[in-house]
Amino acid sequence: MTAPLPILDLGRFNAGGVARDGFLADLRAAVREVGFFYLSGHGVPDGLAQAAWAEAHRFFDLPPAAKDAIAMVNSPHFRGYTRAGAERTRGQPDWREQLDIGTERAALAVRPGAPAWTRLPGPNQWPAAQPALRDALLAWQEAATTIAIRLLRAFALALGQAADAFDPIVAETPNQHLKIIRYPGRASGDAAGPDGRGQGVGAHKDSGLLTLLLQDDQGGLQVETAAGWVDAAPIPGTFVVNAGELLELATDGYIRATVHRVVAPPAGARRTSIAFFLGARLDARVPLLALPPALKAEARGLTSDPLNPLFHDIGANYMKGRLRSHPDVARRHYADLPEVAALPAVGEYS
Ligand SMILES: O=C(O)CCC(=O)C(=O)O
Ligand SMILES: [Fe+2]
Q1: Does 89 sit in the ligand 1 pocket, CB within 6 Å?
Q2: Boundaries of each Fe2OG dioxygenase domain copy (predicted)?
Q3: Theoretical Cys-Cys bridge with 291: which of 34, 192, 295, 317, CB 3.0 to 4.6 Å?
């Protein structure tokens, strides 16, 4: 299906006046109805994305041993490389390799009895053979963070809030999470997947506030809408933006954290993406916004999922997701937590 997803131009927001009002009205409709849109006019210099792409491709082309040398299982901070085949979404195997990074910082000094999430901040792992990867990805992460925080201000205004309504939960130490991802080609029938094609990543919602995605020209990202699954076909110069579960929680379901998936490329092809997830500070709680009456009347309430309960306590919510996605890391570094014993052998993504 062709893409009916809206395209929003951030230049209209930056321009102010009636252009801004029009942007906010379109944004409000987009986040309530679809929860996914393309962002153009974001003003991020092209060179930053080009550098991130070039280094991402170089990384995935490293020999397997060089990538395994920075395996995520080495890191109590859930940073590093994960081979294809180590994740499942709702029981079905995903097929993608990825490198996870986050804010580059020293680990916190953790007091005994402190919440488990205080062990999450810490250094990234970088491949010794590719020193340029670090600068390119950290620069991209900073640029994406700036745009995501500007968008959050637009979300707040679009919902009748003060522009800074979300500022306290992203101030100074927002939870930055960047993944470069490669989906190898998969012969159809390889594994049960959508439309008889293989599953790249199964249907899920993102858990943070906002996701900003760069994708190459292969395609495969699909979004669940009232009209069924639609393709988020690549549009050069744009990001794909979607809201995560924290915004659904903060708005009592006015904003939709939309289900999406990636269909694996055919055998012989491959797909690469760069996904930035803006999360809230781990020490914060998700606020419940007081929506103006006209918007409150349209809020749908939360779509509760017994397999994936949501916590307003952000650190606990994020920790739960990391433990489920990467049970090997959980067992190596978090075996003291009671919930770790119950984890399945392979990561459950969503
Ligand atoms: O690779 C993509 O296009 C999307 C990836 C995704 O949905 C995720 O990692 O949460
Ligand atoms: Fe996602």
Answers
A1: no
A2: 173-280
A3: 295
Mutate to test the pocket of ligand 1, among 262, 278, 308, 350 (most ligand atoms within 8 A of CB): 262
Q: Which ligand has its closest atom nearest to the C-alpha of 204?
A: 2
Digit-coded pLDDT (tens) for 58-90: 999 999 999 999 999 999 999 999 999 887 777
Say which residues have a Cβ less than 8 Å from residue 147's Cβ, sequence separation at least 6.
10, 39, 42, 44, 212, 239
Q: What is the pLDDT of residues 177-222, one digit of tens each?
A: 999 999 998 776 555 566 556 889 999 999 999 999 999 999 999 9
37 vs 25: CA distance, rounded Å: 14
Domain boundaries, the chain: 7-342
Q: Which secondary-structure segment (H or E) carries 100?
A: strand 97-102
The interface pTM score, or ipTM, of the predicted complex is: 0.99
Residue 168 has phi, psi (to 5 degrees) of -60, -30
CATH 2.60.120.330 fits 7-342, yes or no: yes
Q: Which residues neighbour 304 within 8 Å (Cβ) at sequence distance 6 or greater?
A: none
Question: Helix H segments across 159-289?
Answer: 167-170, 245-250
Cα–Cα dist 252/16, whole Å: 28
